[in-house]
Amino acid sequence: MVLEKKIHVTNEVGQDIYVMAVPRPGWALADLATDVVLLAAGVTEIKAVATAMELPESIATFADLVQFLKVASALGSGTWSVGARPAAAVRTVVEAVQHHSVKIATGKAANLREEGLLSYLSASGIAALLGAETVSMLVMSADGKLITDFDSGPDESWIVTPDGIHRVAHGTVSAIDSAFATIPWTSTTIRLAPEGVEIGNHLDADQD
Predict the structure, then answer these.
(1) C-alpha dist (Å) from residue 7 to 10, 81, 109, 111, 136
(2) pTM (2 decimals)?
(3) How far apart are the C-alpha atoms of 21 and 129, rounded to whole Å?
(4) What percent of the chain has pLDDT over 90?
(5) Residue 118 · residue 96 · CB < 8 Å
(6) Which of 89, 63, 59, 67 minimizes the C-alpha distance to 76?
């Protein structure tokens, strides 16, 4: 008997998390069941106030989306003022992605290969994900301040904690695999315009 492959994600962050799994980083967002136009509008506002290394020109792939979300997270978690419109744009991007991700309540777990949870994907996207040997994953906290992405095998389990993502040892339910390095939450350095002061979502920012 062939056992069903599962990607279990357990939430021990202390707040809800949102997880998106796609077949590969270069996967086209055309297969994402969300309003890409709405995301693009938010991205335009974000780009008006911040720049980041390798910031893509548009949101065309999952990798593009992840990069923009990291910048949005940095803006949204800072103590500086970026103005009402960019702040609203940050919320637009974060909330749109959360709306089309798998929500995992604190203390709960979900199988990211369970077809019933994949309504954010098109039919072709679901088929590609279920057949993928490597799955690209995005994890974001409910407040949008914690975000990271990583690749998972088709039969691996993960525990999400305040200090990062831990792989579960094979053959166990919740034992952390000490041989696998913790995947940290992303720290993105950005540059606000026009002042050009570098800041990051896990760094202190000086306000003149």
Answers:
(1) 10, 39, 10, 5, 11
(2) 0.79
(3) 8
(4) 30
(5) no
(6) 89
